[in-house]
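> run fold Glucose 1-dehydrogenase
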Amino acid sequence: MIFNNKVVIITGAGQGIGEAIAMAYARKGASVVIAEKEITTGEKVAQAILALQDSESIMTTVHFIQTDVRSPSAIVHLMEKTYELYGRIDILINNAAISFWKSPYELSVEEWDEVMETNLRGYFLCAREAGKYMKKTGGGSIVNIASTRALMSEPNSEAYGASKGAILALTHALALSFASDHITVNAINPGWIETKSYDTLLKQDHLQHPSQRVGKPEDIARACLFLTQQENDFITATNLVIDGGMTRKMIYI
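> ok
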């Protein structure tokens, strides 16, 4: 899977899954745009990618563009700047997301709106603005990072779960709307992906998964590479669940 001459934008790429996705595309030779609202983390990932050029002799380029996906004007600027830098946009990974784990009795309207503006409206506007440039150069690929919480829930997850469930509907709607422009749109539903303390997980944490281990950010990054391969343009409007089999496991208490 080589992505030489491909330009990829990853939102929320300053840490966790987004960071792993950015590093994966860089290792495959893509030109990577880090779209992140936090300057410190965004610049950190950009510098890590630049370091790959020396340590692993990888031909890649990277730019950090500070972006808050709650802002429509910031999204327009992100796409305009990327096109100005590279003359094309080939791949968009919608990953930036937030959550509030609060009782539905206590969750404020402002908090609900912030989740929807980031996790849902931000995805739509990024896809729409990127799509305008993708169709100029013959097409592209969009991957929306959703969650298995779109399919199942824990208490006090209403805003996050609703936003991720809506992403699945948004994905297949965009896939059909963008089809004539040769733009594929797919979703990934990660399960438990440990982004901070994998080495401290307990044995039972791993064994509760049919895969016999908890997920890693790199598991999601590899799926993004697969879905955005040019050869895989027959795959669109789909939802790929990557959770070690947990959503298919029957649990009785």
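Residues 88 and 136 are 8 Å apart (CA to CA).
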